[in-house]
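Case 201 in the screening queue. Each case pairs one protein sequence with one candidate compound; here the compound is S-adenosylmethionine. For every case the pipeline is the same: read the inputs, emit a complex structure as tokens, and attach any notable structural observations.

Predict complex for case 201.
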Amino acid sequence: MAQNSYEKPDFWTQKAKKEGYPARSVYKLDEIDQKFKLIKKHMHILDVGAAPGSWSLWVLRKFETLHDDSILVSVDLSDLAIPKDKPNFHFFQGDIFSPEVQEQLASFRPYDLILSDAAPATTGNSTVDTSRSEELVHCVLELGNQFLRKGGTLVCKFFIGGGQQELLNQAKKMFKTARTYKPEACRTSSFETYLIAQSKI
Ligand SMILES: C[S@@+](CC[C@H](N)C(=O)[O-])C[C@H]1O[C@@H](n2cnc3c(N)ncnc32)[C@H](O)[C@@H]1O
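Case 201 output:
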């Protein structure tokens, strides 16, 4: 049976493989960073929904290019497929909704930047998938509320659907600016986009 275009290794997948990243999603973060200039020196960064680890690896490589002493804390239900042996890198395997996991993440606050590419395992039913994605976004916004320093930034994936305006309104109450942005590296068929919320009040 012929592969459909979603399954074929595309340009971004091949580029990721060549550059040593476990997933093509890294180029979404690269594009978001180019546009919004997220990563600076001396930061505490939290990466939510980090597995298999492309975003985390990209951040760690960025720290190296900046000769930086920043700290990256990552969390996911699944283990990472990247080395975890750097002293400024802390990984927690667990559920972001769990109070125990949140307590572990809290020990590194305040964060300057929270990144979330977390997504529920999709069912194919867009109503179910969108509502699960919304629950994740609400949880990440709450982490932003508790963990981000004043002036901090939050980047969070969500699925386009019914609750989009409400999420945006909630973010606008917490940050000076909040907007959505869909990087070109997102699959054209995908209904994901990113909330970019800057300057926590
Ligand atoms: C699209 S992947 C992230 C890819 C990652 N940014 C990278 O570049 O490798 C979405 C991740 O969200 C994680 N996830 C979903 N629900 C979660 C939860 N409740 N707690 C922690 N991680 C969760 C999944 O396990 C999955 O690994």
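Case 201 observations:
- The pocket of S-adenosylmethionine is lined by residues 22-23, 25-26, 49-55, 75-78, 95-97, 117-120, 136 (CB under 6 Å).
- The radius of gyration is 16 Å.
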